[in-house]
Amino acid sequence: MRKGQILCPTDFSETASHALSYAIEMANLYQVGFRLLHVVEQPVGDENYQILAITPDELAKSMEDAAAEKMKSLLAKLDSNLAVETMIRRGDAVTEILAEAEESAAGMIVIASHGRTGFSHFLHTNVAEAVANGAKCPVLVVK
């Protein structure tokens, strides 16, 4: 762990902000940089049905631009002298987080869990749980 960067996926929620503070704390402790990651899910639509006024790729690009602005705003608020890299990927959150961890040889993943239980847990994919089960590095799940 002491060598690899800390990967901190974010969905810009309050819970993810809380996890980010843990990521900064861990990065300071181990004197490593950290990578802030946001995953934009690929929108689906069919131009033949005229559901979207723009193509799914245009919508995804717009979502990426909005995420980049949120990322800049988030970085401006950080009180850290550590090296911070930002990354925006497109696709399934779990797949992209695990791929980024593997490609960047992350030493640890610090991820937020929204703590859903019961029927809500059944309906929504638990990204933090899937990442913790699939990661090859340590994962800190923050509630």
From TrEMBL:
Record-stated family: Belongs to the universal stress protein A family.
InterPro entries for the chain: Rossmann-like_a/b/a_fold, Universal_stress_UspA, UspA
Pfam families per the UniProt record, alphabetical: Usp
Domain (UspA) ranges: 5-143
Protein name: Universal stress protein A
Gene3D superfamilies cross-referenced by the UniProt entry: HUPs
